[in-house]
Design goal:
The complex is a heterodimer. Chain A is α/β, with parallel strands linked by helices. Helices cover about 40% and strands about 15% of the residues of chain A. Chain A contains 19 helices and eleven strands. In chain A, the strands form two sheets. In chain A, strands 1, 2, 3, 6, 7, 8, 9, 10 and 11 form a nine-stranded mixed β-sheet that branches. The longest helix of chain A has 24 residues. By secondary structure, chain B is an all-alpha fold. Chain B is flat. Chain B starts with 15 loop residues before the first helix and ends with a helix. The chains are: A alpha/beta, B mainly alpha. The interface between A and B is large, with 68 and 81 residues.
């Protein structure tokens, strides 16, 4: 212990520190709101021609900011190399980013955004925020690809629909996603199980799974809304397009539609029977998915077709991951059982204020070339929106083969919806779904919770609505 | 015993301010002031104060954050904030944190600091428990780990199926905890999160209080012991009153820590937790700014958070003064 010393200095110091201490959080919370000035856009371009449909300046460079997630960014680098080989020799610099909104926010404010953005991931920019700053992309799909075919003719049907807002194509979703219920074909074959087609059959399968000490479903806290995706798809198949339109247009009481209620009731029966692996609300979602793909403690998992690529390192050998259509409620549903929820993901946008707008479009054109699209399908085991890039053996992937099969069987019965992403509802809905899947809310409470989220957006006059028909 | 602190001798002589005034301003003195006072002041104005003003300005607009247009909307964002159920829920959670964490962290820190400084053998000189140095290092250890790593680590410990905690609980026979989601159940999510925050920060305050107690004259503790005071009585009646200003400062620091909590919340329950039970203002602000593209509204939330922080600091000072801290403040 020290001798007596004047205490003043220490107190002085602490008081000074106190002021700084109060200032510190203020700086953190407030400084993030700082903004820059704005500069006028400088869109440069050359003459347009059949081989240069957007009039991109020869030897110019394209700045692309690409979300660095499950698909990585090297597929864009590949497309850039394809582009550089063309006559105009346009090159691209591909910048990977994990937080698109945080990375690009200052650039959008300053008026110098990149020429091409893959606006994907958990921190994507809400499209309604930057909608007025995006270039129209209809000339991209009207142009010919590098192989000389009109791009629009090479795409799967309906893939440009989600990116078309009020009649304008602003977003080009590059990757085709098939939403399905995924299972291990080898596990099902070994036990003589068949894939359920209705919620009742799913319940019956759940009983058999329980006898083997397994669960029917597993879920993770960040991915609880995968079950919402399943429920909505199932409801649309059961009740038809009017269910989809009610949800898309944020109608009052849309979650109380009979088709949706019948799905929720069927889910509740499965939840109450303890067929969901407990603890999902506290489990990190990839850990939960590994309980399905590696431990096989759950039988079924509803997800998009990215699941194979996402879990590739945590999938049991010989798993034979296969997709099946979402359940219907009855066998007399409005849409056939084979109908599929499929949409295109990885939204690419070209900011209108970019320095080389034509270059951004040119890079998209390169990505849509048969060469670049085939490269993507082969290396990512996921098809792009470009048709005919997946061979019959699916590059050796059962999941990729089943995606092709599902899409072929579905024919014209392919549907999708947009309202969850468009209005940024997922985070709020996660809370409600985690509660429901944990068995802590009734169907009525669950419906009220979801309706409240829809109503909040519907009544918020500052949110620009998109009318869907 | 509480009257000890004011009777301590203080530094004598006229105050520094008075001495300063008496001398003439020389070039030496002016250049010194310019370098050591002027430059920091400018830096402070530009980097600290101007963002405050700017943020308050933006909070009165409906700026989306992604373009240059900032339409003025008056106090509409504040009206929206106080009618937004999610934001109010976040405020409620932040206030819960700020009421619980500082008191708990400081109580534990003082108890541990007392143990390692004055809790030892009652014969011979006043000293801490055996191995006190070792415990100090051990207690400080969690503070060295970055908050995000702490969050990820505890996320794994709390994992319902494969986590360490449920593994231990079920192995001692508490099978009810098999697959119990500590972070996924609204009843436990907040408590579990608070525990992690306490675990991560208590060591730092132990070190602060150990240093403060060591700076106190040993004679006082010896005198108290001769008067027959036990360890607990010494801790509550001698140590705590003499550490008043340290405790006050630490309360404010822990309060700020509790009001921010962003890193811990994001690591443990990024989405706000079950039924939004761990949603805090900073998370709601981040979501509003970056995913919903409402920077003006987010700035208003930031201003509210700042106001709550200042209010908390004010309450701490007020309580301190009402409980007899006045003499301490008037000491100079």
């Amino acid at each position: 212990m020290n001798d007596l010393k004047p205490q003043l200095h220490r107190r002085d110091f602490l008081r000074g520190a106190l002021v700084l201490g109060i200032a510190a959080p203020l700086t953190v919370t407030l400084a993030s709101c700082a903004a820059g000035g704005s500069t006028a856009p400088a869109a440069t371009g050359g003459p347009k021609s059949a081989t240069n449909p957007f009039g991109v300046k020869a030897k110019s460079t394209v700045a692309a900011t690409i979300f660095n997630g499950g698909y990585g960014t090297d597929y864009v680098t590949f497309a850039a190399a394809v582009m550089a080989k063309q006559k105009n020799g346009v090159t691209a610099t591909v910048s990977p980013a994990t937080n698109i909104a945080q990375t690009l926010q200052p650039k959008f404010v300053a008026g110098n955004p990149p020429d091409l953005v893959d606006n994907s991931g958990a921190n994507a920019i809400g499209i309604s925020t930057i909608r007025s700053q995006l270039a129209e992309l209809s000339d991209v799909i009207a142009a010919n690809n590098y192989e000389g075919k009109k791009i629009a003719d090479t795409l799967y049907g309906g893939v440009t629909k989600p990116g078309t807002l009020d009649g304008k194509l602003l977003i080009l979703n590059y990757v085709l996603t098939v939403y399905a219920i995924w299972y291990s074909k080898s596990l099902f074959d070994a036990n003589g199980w068949t894939v359920p087609k209705t919620w009742d059959e799913a319940y019956q399968l759940g009983l058999k799974a329980k006898a083997k000490g397994k669960y029917l479903f597993i879920w993770g806290k960040e991915a609880a809304t995968y079950y919402q995706t399943l429920a909505i798809a199932s409801s649309i198949k059961e009740g038809g397009d009017e269910v989809r339109l009610a949800l898309e247009n944020l109608e009052p009481k849309c979650w109380s539609k009979p088709a949706i209620q019948s799905v929720f009731t069927a889910m509740k029966k499965i939840i109450d029977a303890g067929m969901f692996k407990p603890g999902g609300a506290g489990t990190q979602f990839t850990a939960a998915q590994a309980q399905w793909s590696n431990d096989e403690s759950g039988l079924l998992y509803p997800s998009g077709s990215w699941i194979e690529n996402e879990m590739i390192k945590q999938t049991k050998a010989g798993f034979k991951m296969t997709g099946a259509p979402e359940f219907t409620v009855t066998s007399s549903s409005a849409m056939p059982y084979e109908a599929m929820h499929s949409t295109a993901g990885e939204p690419f946008v070209v900011p209108a204020k970019g320095a080389n707008v034509a270059g951004g479009k040119e890079l998209l054109r390169a990505m849509l070339s048969n060469e670049a699209a085939t490269n993507f399908a082969k290396t990512r085991l996921t098809p792009t929106i470009v048709k005919g890039t997946v061979p019959a053996d699916g590059f050796g992937s059962t999941a990729l083969v089943s995606q092709s099969t599902l899409l072929t069987n579905a024919g014209d019965h392919v549907f999708s919806w947009n309202f969850v992403d468009l209005y940024g509802m997922n985070q709020d809905q996660l809370v409600v779904w985690n509660t429901f899947l944990s068995g802590k809310s009734s169907v009525a409470q669950h419906t009220a919770g979801l309706q409240a989220i829809t109503d909040k957006v519907a009544s918020d006059s500052s949110v620009t609505k998109v009318k869907v028909s | 015993m509480t009257g000890i602190a004011p009777s301590l001798p203080t530094a004598g002589g006229p105050s520094r301010a008075a001495r300063w005034r008496r001398k003439n301003l020389t070039f030496d003195k002016i250049s010194f002031a310019a370098v050591f006072l002027g430059i920091p002041l400018v830096v402070y104005l530009v980097l600290v104060l101007s963002p405050f003003v700017q943020a308050i300005g933006y909070s009165l607009t409906s700026w989306s954050g992604f373009d240059a247009s900032t339409p003025f909307v008056g106090f509409a964002n504040y009206v929206k904030a106080f009618t937004d159920a999610d934001f109010l829920h976040a405020v409620q959670n932040s206030v819960t944190l700020v009421l619980v964490l500082p008191v708990v962290i400081i109580a534990i820190a003082i108890a541990l600091a007392s143990l390692v400084t004055i809790g030892g053998s009652s014969s011979g000189p006043v000293r801490g428990v055996r191995g006190g140095e070792f415990y100090r290092i051990l207690l400080f250890f969690p503070y060295i780990i970055p908050a995000i790593a702490v969050g990820i680590m505890w996320g794994q410990i709390y994992d319902p199926s494969n986590g360490l905690l449920n593994g231990i609980l079920t192995s001692v026979g508490l099978t009810a905890f098999a697959s119990y989601p500590w972070l996924g159940d609204a009843r436990t999510a907040m408590v579990a999160t608070m525990f992690v925050m306490i675990w991560a920060s208590v060591g730092f305050y132990v070190v602060i209080f150990v240093a403060a107690i060591k700076a106190l004259p040993a004679e006082i503790f010896e005198a108290a012991r001769l008067d027959g005071a036990g360890r607990f009585r010494i801790a509550t009646r001698v140590t705590v009153p003499m550490l008043r200003s340290n405790i006050r400062t630490s309360l404010i620091y822990t309060g700020i820590f509790a009001l921010d909590a962003f890193v811990f919340m994001s690591a443990l329950n990024a989405g706000g937790g079950p039924q939004n039970s761990t949603l805090v203002i900073s998370q709601e602000l981040f979501k509003t700014a970056f995913t919903k593209g409402e920077f003006g509204y987010a700035c208003a939330m930031g201003v509210v958070l700042a106001a709550i922080t200042l209010l908390f600091a004010g309450v701490v000072f007020l309580v301190d003064r009402l409980t007899g801290g006045r003499e301490d403040l008037q000491e100079e």
